Amino acid sequence: MTLGFVRPARLDDVVEIARIQLTTWRVAYRRLLPRHVLDRLDEEWITRQWREAIAQPPSPAHRVLVAVEQVDAPGSAPDAEPDSAYVVGFAASGPADDTALAPDEDHTALDKAFEATAAITDLLVEPRWGRRGHGSRLLAASVDLWRSDGFTTALAWTFADDRVTRRFLESAGWAPDGTRRSLDVDDMLIPQVRWHVSLEPDSEVPVTGA
Question: Which are the contacts of 195, defined by CB distance < 8 A and separation ≥ 6?
């Protein structure tokens, strides 16, 4: 039997989180970002950043979640140890900060404009584990935690040409908010689009199959 679930990230997950990030970026973004930039990504540096994010988050509302696929042998007892459990994806989020804004927005009004807004910084599922609901479970778990923290809106940036992520967010009830920016990646400007969703109690955030 195969079971998918989400749990808070632990320090012993950091190596796998960094590996998943590198693998996913190099596969999913190979047509969006320069190849030499993807090839130069530093796995050790990325691992250190995730270790710090998990061990010393800036606030209780800054969280890293992991998606796990657990495989039990046929006929296993319900309380038996799983045969195999794999970290297959992760999501990181926290209160919206300067990174949630476009350059032409008023950064001095951040607290007032986004005081009840959460922001996704990463939501990735390793491509070989895709289309099994892991992305949806990560997003649904994040929404539950944002609501418990009192957030009423959430934001996320996507690359403008990242059709897979855009379709995923759209199917989950998100929509572009009209804000755009460009990231300078080794002298290449890569356009991004900002998405938003309401977290109000009367707002349904659909569960998708990604």
Answer: 155, 156, 157, 158, 166, 169, 174, 175, 176, 177
